[in-house]
Structure formats: C-alpha cells, structure tokens
C-alpha cells in the first residue's frame, strides 16, 4: 500500500521533501498557512493540496519554522491518532521537551534533522535532490515505538539520505559545536570589520574570506536556531570565552608586564586548533585523509580553468577538492588542486610537461 | 647602475624575493645563519652567497623571523652606513620602535610587509611569483627619507606587487582585524572540536570546514606574529570578547530567565556580521561585487569537472570564483560557480541544454 505523507509547511525543506517523495512513489498531501506557498509547492509537483476531504495520513512531517515546530507536532499527534509524526527542525531537545510536556501521544513522535539547506528559503528554492547524499539524523526518544523509527528511516532513505540515529541532547550538542558556534564566530569576526578604514579592509586575504563566508547568513533564521539550542550553544560558547580570555590575558602580559607564560598560552591555543581541525572528516564522510595540494597558475580568461581540469582528468587523476584563489589585484588566479599523495608527482610532471606553471 | 640588494634570511620570503629580483636584473647577495639554507637559495637562483669580500649593498632586506627582525635591521644599519634597510615582518610597530630606540641611523629604515605567504616555509618552498599581484605594504616612519621610501617602492613594483603606503600603527591595526584575529577565531572554534564524540564531528559540513581551514596553520610562526602585534590584536580581541559575552548573556537569559531582549541581542550580532562581511573587497581588490552562484551537480569521476568548466568557457562566460562542495557520504559533488548577475540566466540555460543538472 502506498504510504501517505502529510507535509505541514511548504517552505524550502517541506517542498523539496514533497518533490523527492512524490518522485519515489509516495502519496504526499501538503498544507501551509500561506495558500500561495502551498499552491506553488503543488505546481512544483510536491504533492496535492490537502483540504477537509483529504483522508488521514500515515506519516506527518512538520516542516514549519523552528519556533513553532513543537506546537505543530502536538496538533498533528492529536489530529491524526494513527499517524507517525516527525519534524525537521535543526534543534531537537527543545521540540522534544515541549511535545512530551503537552500530554500528546508522544510514542508516535520521532524527531529528525536532515542536514540539508541552502542560502535561499521558500518553496521556489526547493529542489528534488536537496537530501541526496546528506546526513539525515533520526532522533528517537525513550518511548518512540520501533515502528515510528523505522518509518522515518524509510523516508530518509527514500530521498537518498544517509541515516544517523542519535538522542536529542547528543544531536544538539553536536550541532552546537560543528554548526551553531562556527556561525557565531564567523559573524563576530566579520562584525569587527564594520568600522575599519577602507585601506584596512583592502588588506583582506583568502584566510579572512574563508573564516567569514557564512557571516552572510540570514539573521532571522539563525536567531531562531540559536535560541532553540540555547543551552548547548552556551556550553560551547563558554569554552570559546575561556580561550578568548586566556588569549587576552597572554596579550595583557606581553603589553603591560613581563610576558612570562604568554607565548605558551598563545601557542597552546594554536596547537589545540591544529588538533581540533585534524578531527574534521574528509570528503564522503570518510576519515580525514591527508590530501596534498598542487598549486597551478590559471590565467583569468574564459576556459583556462576548464583546460587545466581537462588536463587533470586526461591524466587519469581524480581531483578530491578544488580551491580557487584570487588575491588583491591579481590578474591571474591560483587553482589549488587536492589529490591523494600518490598522485602528486605524476600530476605535477604531467602539468609541467603541458606548459602549466606549477608551484612547488 | 645595477642595484645591489642584500637579503638577510634565506627562508620562504627571502629566497622568493631573491629569485624574483635576480630575474628582474637586480644584483642579489644572500646571507643566513644556516649555511645549508643560503646555498640552497643560491642553487634556486636567488643570488650569490655573500662573504667577507662582497661589496656593500645599496639596499638590505631583512627576511628574518619576526622576533629577531629588529635586531638584524639595527645591525644592518650600522654595518652598511650608505644602505637603505627594510624588513618584511608581518608586524611593523614593534620592529620600528626597537629600531628607533637603538640609536641607529633610522632615516635609512623603511618597514615593509609583502602580503604573501604559503602554508609551507623554508627556501625549498620559494617561488619566483610569490609576490605577483599581492599587496606590498610600505611602512615609512616620520624620519624615513623620501629616497628610502621610493627605493622600497621600486623593489615591490619590480616583483609585481601592488604598493600600499601606511604608517606602522595603521598597518598593525589593519592586520590585527583582517588576519590575526581571524586566525585566533579559527583556532578557537577548531579547538572546541577536540573532545567531541566521533558521531558529532561526523555532522561537520562545508560551513565548519571554511571557518576552520586556517586552524591548520603553524603554531610557532603564529605565536611570534601574535606576540609581535600584541597591543593591536588585544584591542580587536576585546571587541570579540564583548560580543561573546553578549551572546552568552542572551543565552543565559533564554535558559535561566524569561529571555527578554535575548533575541534582539542574537539578531544584532548576526546582523553586524552581515554588515562586516559586506565590506570585504572582491576579486582583484575591487569593491565587493554581488556575484551570483549557479550550482551544478558534478559526478565524482575524473574529467567531469573539467567537462563542466569547458562548457562554461565555451559559453563565453567568465567564472569569477568556484567552490566545490562534498557533503557527508556524497557520491557526487556540487560545483558552485560564481558569475556576474547578467551571466546567470545564459549560463543556466546553456548548461541545462547540455544535460547538466543545474540547481535553482
């Protein structure tokens, strides 16, 4: 029998999920407080528009903004007493607590968090492949039934995600450290640029660009996410504060006193950063691989980078990552090509043979 | 008459400078406490090895580690009473102060800071084009002679750099905000990952990777840089601390109290980050341009990215930047191609026509 999924919320995530599930043969019905959004989602083939005559769904996925997710989950549990209910909010503990406190039949509730998103929001930004190859965290609680958990797992696998199962507090602690605090750090570093003289921001290099790229994110959405995960974010921000204080203390000692111990403190923070950085997994979720970088000068003209990468491909070498660097006033770029160590020398000699300027 | 440049210090910067100046017809003599390093630099065509018979240089460039730069500058001023002397340390006020305090003939001293470097150090990593298209900050002080300043300017232009002139304190304040504090922030965020469970770091995405990329930098070099610019770095770190405290205060209010004002504080930090981020200049040192991103699915196989970029080039469209994204467990990548807004629609339709999966 075809599974009937009700999606509540026709934004980026809800509409993308509707399109993906419809494509996999699920029956999808849609609702949203905005009649325009729900009709747009239908036109994008995300499913049918639900009305008073639509029969009860087997599964409900709440794709509402994080600050109303719990309330919509509780309503859904009461409204459809036979359905499994989930939500896709990027924080899980606060939603779970509110659901448990409501007195609703929480056995049928399982949280989830598809690790997918875009800089843009709304149904118009939806895409069928949004979840493909992404992690989808399934977040059961103590009384979630096994049937409810496997139901969510089935949906996540159907849209091409990799399923990870973890409890709510573990999920929230993880995303605080790997997502929410990095967002705050990027915003805070970028905020320090606001009042700099023009000549000073002119010295910006690729390091600053990388650190602050996500500082361009949407403040409205991120305020909700941070508030929804306040406790776990606070724990990590306290670690950040302690390190910031230690650095300032060391700088104080260097500026105002004899600086004893200061260099050790600074070096300790930088070394801890080396160790933490080394824990970030590489491509495809595999253990971090020590890729090596081959840097090649690329003239700033249409087709030059393509020609370079064509030569890389023709050499039978798989490019693991690519970073294009332009400095202040550069008329050329430098392509940093990451490959497995064994490919470094073959690639360097082949590119040099073909006339590329390969850096050491 | 050929200008004779003595380079003191045959590391990455000194050797690269020697190679570049030799290539432009300068006479370069080299010295370094390490006989191996100086001979390696000579073999790389960075110049002749200086000995007791080498005649006096016209210009001395001190390319020693930051913590000994001032001392080497003072020695050079005393040793060659006719020469202009400069250094390339990435902090300028502390070097200048020590030179002025030494009683040496500081009129012939002009600081400089070529904004170029690599993750690797040493003569072996040198390259002739290290300074090409990079900013070279020339840092005169009150009694620097105009002749000394134009001499440094000539060297910077000869190696292909763009010359910016600013006083030492202005330089140090600028690099504190655009380079030194971003380094600390990246290290501190990465340090928070050290003790996470494996499942938590498994949720890392491209945002974390960008924020922490430079956390892999060399702690020894960076300890010297931070200590050398302690006062200016401290000023910016205090701004960081105030914002970290404000965020923690808001999270406290949300967790422990009624949260009044908390959302406004969080949103304020995120909005300030938007504003600061918008001030970072774009490619080629130009004013920031709102490039738009076209996202295209790239199969993970040799040559696929090249084929894509070949199609972009054939469409006559100039790629302004390129970012390759791989999520956890993805078998395909997404290439994010930045182009000027007017090229978005032509590029999208051309790529779709050729069978590429282009995201909205």
Write up what this structure looks like.
- With 360 residues, chain A is an alpha/beta fold.
- Chain A has 3 domains: 4-166, 3-Layer(aba) Sandwich (Rossmann fold); 172-278, 6-phosphogluconate dehydrogenase C-terminal like domain (6-phosphogluconate dehydrogenase C-terminal fold); 292-353, ACT domain (Alpha-Beta Plaits, 2-Layer Sandwich), CATH 3.30.70.260.
- Chain A has 13 helices and 11 strands.
- The first copy, chain A, has helices spanning 12-23, 35-43, 69-79, 93-101, 146-158, 168-191, 198-201, 206-212, 219-228, 230-256, 262-278, 304-314, 344-353, and strands at 4-8, 27-31, 48-49, 59-62, 84-87, 111-114, 135-139, 162-165, 292-299, 321-325, 332-339.
- In chain A, the strands form 3 sheets. Chain A has a 5-stranded parallel β-sheet, with helices on both faces. Chain A has a 3-stranded mixed β-sheet with strand order 6-7-8, with helices on one face.
- At the A-B interface, helix 6, helix 7, helix 8, helix 9 and helix 10 of A face helix 6, helix 7, helix 8, helix 9 and helix 10 of B.
- Chains A, B: It is an enzyme of class 1 (oxidoreductase).
- Chains A, B: Keywords: Amino-acid biosynthesis, Aromatic amino acid biosynthesis, NAD, Oxidoreductase, Tyrosine biosynthesis.
- Chains A, B: It catalyses: prephenate + NAD(+) = 3-(4-hydroxyphenyl)pyruvate + CO2 + NADH.
- Chains A, B: Residues 3-283 form the Prephenate/arogenate dehydrogenase domain.
């Amino acid at each position: 029998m075809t599974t009937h999924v009700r999606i509540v919320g026709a934004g980026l995530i809800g509409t993308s999920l509707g399109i993906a599930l419809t494509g996999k043969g699920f029956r999808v019905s849609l609702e949203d407080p905005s009649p325009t959004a729900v009709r747009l989602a239908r036109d994008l083939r995300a499913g049918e528009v639900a009305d008073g005559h639509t029969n009860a769904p087997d599964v409900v996925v709440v794709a509402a903004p994080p600050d109303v997710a719990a309330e919509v989950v509780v309503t859904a549990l009461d409204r459809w007493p036979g359905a499994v209910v989930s939500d896709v909010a990027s924080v899980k503990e606060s939603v779970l607590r509110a659901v448990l406190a409501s007195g609703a039949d929480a056995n049928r509730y399982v949280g989830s968090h598809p690790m997918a998103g875009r800089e843009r929001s709304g149904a118009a930004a939806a895409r069928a492949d949004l979840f493909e190859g992404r992690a989808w965290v399934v977040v059961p609680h103590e009384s979630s039934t096994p049937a409810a958990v496997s139901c969510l797992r089935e949906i996540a696998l159907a849209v091409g995600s990799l399923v990870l199962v973890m409890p709510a507090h573990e999920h929230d602690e993880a995303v605080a450290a790997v997502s929410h605090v990095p967002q705050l750090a990027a915003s805070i570093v970028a905020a320090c640029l606001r009042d700099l003289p023009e000549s000073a921001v002119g010295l910006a290099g690729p390091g600053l660009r990388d650190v602050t790229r996500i500082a361009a994110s949407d403040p409205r959405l991120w305020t909700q996410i941070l508030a929804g995960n306040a406790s776990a974010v606070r724990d990590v921000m306290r670690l950040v504060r302690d390190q910031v204080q230690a650095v300032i203390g060391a700088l104080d000692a260097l500026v105002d006193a004899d600086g004893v111990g200061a260099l050790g403190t600074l070096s300790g923070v930088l070394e801890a950063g080396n160790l933490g950085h080394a824990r970030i997994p590489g491509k495809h979720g595999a253990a971090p691989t020590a890729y090596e970088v081959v840097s090649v000068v690329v003239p700033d003209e249409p087709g030059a980078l393509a020609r370079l990468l064509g030569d890389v491909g023709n050499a039978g070498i798989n490019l693991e990552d690519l970073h294009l660097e332009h400095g202040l006033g550069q008329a050329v770029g430098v392509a940093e090509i990451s490959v497995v160590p064994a490919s470094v020398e073959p690639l360097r000699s082949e590119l040099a043979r073909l006339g590329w300027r390969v850096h050491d």
